[in-house]
Design goal:
The complex is a heterodimer. By secondary structure, chain A is mainly α. Chain A is built from 13 helices and two strands. A two-stranded antiparallel ribbon of chain A has the order 1-2. In chain A, helix 3 runs antiparallel to helix 10 and helix 4 crosses helix 10. Chain B is of the alpha/beta class. The N and C termini of chain B lie far apart (about 50 Å). The chains are: A mainly alpha, B alpha/beta. Chains A and B meet through helix 8 and helix 9 of A and helix 10 and strand 18 of B.
């Protein structure tokens, strides 16, 4: 009798993460095919609509790049914390705070010609995201309050704060009582980078952050300390690395990155502050970070794939008539497939023939 | 020779490329004490796990009382009559002795209490059935484990390095118990790498090396030297004789240290004094769990104290952290290698920087990767660490080799003070000898060393002075020439007064 067993890999290979990613993607395609069959749609048409159609038109590519920007930013920030076992799952809230801070500047200085307005909004958004995450860092280092719960619950607080502002202090006085702010002036909005689409320059911020992350993860002492603290807290104590500082660094970096993503939304496709800023980028960013293997380059590809699924879900809604919940389901299948396959990062399958008896 | 109760033939078990057991034959006879002897990684634990049903062999047969069997789980092993006492106890500290035993043995509490008393008396295992486990010593806890095993009426009882946690007097007592068990017809399998114990206790010894059985001998007819040769396949170099006198200049001092640990079951430290001198090795003896861990954390700076509780060259350093102390030349080798001394998932090159980053491995907050890799290569050659190179993951090394790497790393920066916690614990004989020799070499170069060890022979061999730790207190220092193992053993049980036996 033969059976499959898992045996540990003798050496870590570079190939393994790639194999895992490809395998997870294949499983997602299979899962998606089943999903479309359930909806009574030809699986080939469905998968074509989600994974191919967006890439066939200039508009579709623009939409993918547009959604990639916030996912990339958020995931790069989160990954740095995750490597240190600091679990910020409230990027959604930090994104909202970043959007609010940038909007306050855009509204307050509406009518100036200054080209410094947009850069000021970027800095303000980043600082606001950091400040929101700092609450969790302070509670964790001071009272050992679990950062998972604190960051998650602060997202609800951020949402309520947003609702209050768009129905009150930041509401457009000429807006027929709609819960939204004034439309931002051109000097408070990111320029379009691909003509005829909505893709804007905030993607450059994401790419710049990716570049910084590559250097930071590979060469910086700070990242080394974070990784020691995450993999072996005992070794971190022994070496004398401060665990409190690690928590602060992890939360401030991820909060700041999420805040930048928030600026990209209000100063990008929205052009104003409104109730719905993000279709769950903060949570999808967690998937992207994990899917990218917490590696900056891996995250670059993962964010592109997740953005494609977002846009593809919309395309499938139009062309084959499935509900937009398909987007969420496909993202979920992708994450679960990846987690299931990630066992193969450290183990490999082997066929073993058992001795008779 | 009687009929074997357990007869194992040709058992083979491989983990990946490593063959842990290679065609092993092993027979256990009732009423005999049978030693299994071998270095770490020789395949002893794998063989025991196969017998106890934890691991399934790839090939080979197990015959139990004449019947071919396949043992699928520890529960099945216990049902057949095979009991095991592990090195690490599995007791609930907040429950009483009887309650702990009742989790494994059926019967009402009263009835069980009586059976425990009866078995204690019969085998010399004094334990109070109503005592809560957290109040008991390590030796008493081990007796509970043995009792729990005996009450399940096993035919074979396996003990995994049972003496490693006991003071000398406790070992004598354990041996009496084991002889009693054997005289009742129970087969005792005794795993150890301490040769004198095996020669004193065991009737036969199976010696393993590299996953194979290399000999079955009567240990009483062998010398420690001949057993060692079988075990490691060569002679071990004896450390060079002590050749010096300490400089008597105090380098590191601890004065009147009090510390209450967070763990309610850990011993609080009270009124500790010690002085480390250059060119001298001070040993801290004691059964583990008597406060050595906390003392080590205080010396390393992981636990901060009032500044003048710890003095380095008369300067207060008690409030400094581990990094600041390392910069002053105080280095530290922790007991736990994987997860404290080294990051398991990191390469040796990455681990090389863990405690040496401040010595030119950083520029403007960035890692000097090439320099770090070179440094790691040197650490590997300096101590002859067996590995595939600086890019090998720390967790891929054997315990002994990783320890050699850590020792090499902590010596790389020429420390003035080196503190080592159980430096040779669980390390094979050859590597242990190499580590001891390095420690002696450092002493001769004027380094002040402090060694915490449970192995008295080791302390007597390499230390100049010894202090004994018991329940958070530390005895006055005594020169090793002025005491002996027996009196250190008494001090390990709390009797500090008789420590100095020979007045020089």
């Amino acid at each position: 009798m033969a059976r499959l067993v898992l045996v540990p890999r003798e050496t870590a290979t570079l190939l393994a993460p790639l194999q895992v990613a490809v395998l997870a993607l294949v499983m997602t395609l299979l899962g998606g095919a089943v999903l479309f069959v359930i909806y009574g749609v030809s699986p080939l048409d469905g998968l074509h609509a989600v994974f191919v159609e967006p890439l066939l038109t200039r508009y579709g590519i623009g939409e993918v790049l547009l959604k990639m920007a916030p996912l990339l930013l958020i995931a790069q920030g989160l990954a740095i914390g995750f490597r240190a076992q600091v679990w910020n799952i409230g990027a959604e809230g930090q994104l909202i705070l970043g959007a609010i801070a940038a909007s306050v500047l855009a509204i307050r200085f509406d009518g100036t010609d200054s080209q410094l307005l947009l850069p000021a909004m970027v800095v303000a958004g980043m600082l606001a995201g950091m400040a929101w995450a700092a609450i969790a860092a302070w509670l964790r280092t001071q009272f050992n309050a679990n950062e998972i719960l604190v960051t998650f619950m602060l997202t609800s607080v951020a949402l309520q704060l947003l609702y209050f502002l768009v129905t009150g202090p930041l509401k457009d006085p000429m807006g027929f009582n709609f819960p939204q702010s004034i439309s931002f002036a051109p000097n408070a909005v990111f320029p379009i980078i691909l003509e005829g689409t909505r893709a804007n320059a905030s993607l450059y911020i994401g790419l710049a952050v990716t570049l910084v992350a590559v250097v930071f993860v590979r060469y910086s002492f700070a990242s080394y300390k974070l990784s020691v603290g995450g993999l072996a807290p005992g070794a971190s104590f022994y070496a004398g690395f401060s665990s409190k500082r690690a928590i602060w660094v992890a939360l401030l970096v991820s909060g700041g990155a999420a805040g930048l993503a928030g600026v990209g939304e209000v100063a990008g496709p929205l052009g104003q502050l409104q109730r719905n800023i993000s279709p769950g980028y903060g949570y999808a960013g967690i998937i992207v970070a994990v899917l990218g293997g917490l590696n900056p380059i891996g995250i670059l590809f993962a964010s592109a794939i997740m953005a494609l699924v977002y846009v593809g879900g919309d395309f499938a809604l139009l062309s084959v008539g499935v509900p937009d919940a398909v987007t969420g389901i496909l993202q979920g299948i992708l994450l679960i497939s990846y987690l299931a396959c990630s066992l193969l990062l450290t183990m490999r399958l082997r066929l073993v023939r058992e001795a008779p008896g | 020779m009687t009929e074997p109760i357990l007869d194992i033939r040709g058992v083979t078990k491989a983990y990946g490329l490593t063959v842990a057991n290679d065609a092993v034959d092993f027979q256990v006879e009732p009423g005999l004490i049978h030693a299994v002897l071998g270095e770490n990684g020789a395949g002893k634990s794998t063989l025991m796990k196969i017998i106890y049903g934890v691991v399934k062999p790839d090939a080979g047969t197990l015959v139990w009382r004449g019947q071919l069997v396949s043992i699928a789980s520890p529960a099945e092993a216990r049902r057949l009559g095979i009991g095991m006492v592990f090195q690490h106890f599995s007791l609930f500290e907040t429950l009483t002795v009887t309650e702990n035993i009742s989790l494994a043995v059926p019967g009402s509490k009263n009835e069980l209490g009586q059976r425990i008393r009866a078995a204690s008396a019969r085998f010399g295992l004094d334990v109070e059935p109503d005592a809560r486990v957290h109040t008991l010593t390590v030796g008493e806890r081990q007796r509970i484990e043995i009792l729990r095993c005996i009450l399940q009426e096993p035919k074979v009882i396996i003990l995994d390095e049972p003496t490693s946690v006991l003071p000398p007097q406790g070992i004598v007592k354990l041996f009496e118990t084991l002889r009693n068990l054997a005289s009742e017809g129970i087969a005792v399998v005794f795993i150890s790498h301490k040769l004198d114990e095996i020669r004193a206790l065991c009737d036969t010894a199976t010696i393993m090396r590299g996953g194979r059985v290399v000999g079955v001998v009567n240990p009483k007819e062998e010398t420690s030297k001949s057993l060692t040769q079988l075990m490691i396949g060569q002679d071990i170099p004896a450390p060079t004789a002590r050749s010096h006198a300490g400089t008597t200049a105090g380098v590191l001092r601890v004065q009147n240290l009090d510390h209450v640990p967070d763990d309610p079951y850990a011993a609080p430290l009270s009124g500790l004094d010690l002085e480390l001198r250059g060119g001298e090795i001070l040993g801290i003896a004691g059964v583990s769990g008597n406060g050595q861990g906390a003392l080590m954390r205080v010396l390393a700076g992981e636990i901060r104290t009032a500044p003048d509780t710890v003095l380095l060259d008369q300067k207060p350093v008690g409030a400094l952290g581990p990094g600041a102390r390392r910069r002053l030349g105080v280095h530290f080798i922790p007991e736990e290698r994987l997860g404290r001394g080294a990051v398991p998932g990191h390469t040796l090159a990455e681990n090389a920087g863990l405690t040496t980053f401040h010595s030119g491995l950083l520029s403007f907050g960035f890692l000097q990767l090439r320099k770090r890799r070179e440094r790691a290569g040197k650490m590997i050659t300096d101590m002859d660490v067996r590995c595939s190179g600086p890019d090998a993951a720390a967790q891929s090394l054997s315990g002994g080799n990783l320890q050699k790497f850590i020792v090499s790393r902590e010596m790389a920066l020429a420390p003035r003070v080196l503190i080592a916690e159980q430096p040779t614990w669980g390390v094979d004989v050859g590597a242990a000898a190499a580590i001891r020799q390095k420690l002696l070499d450092m002493r001769d170069q004027g380094v002040a060393l402090l060694i915490v060890s449970e192995e008295l022979e080791e302390l007597m061999e390499i230390c100049d002075r010894v202090q004994v730790m018991f329940r958070g207190r530390l005895s006055a220092p005594v020169a090793v020439g002025q005491t002996d193992i027996e009196h250190i053993g008494l001090a390990m049980a709390g009797d500090f007064d008789g420590l100095e036996t020979v007045h020089g």
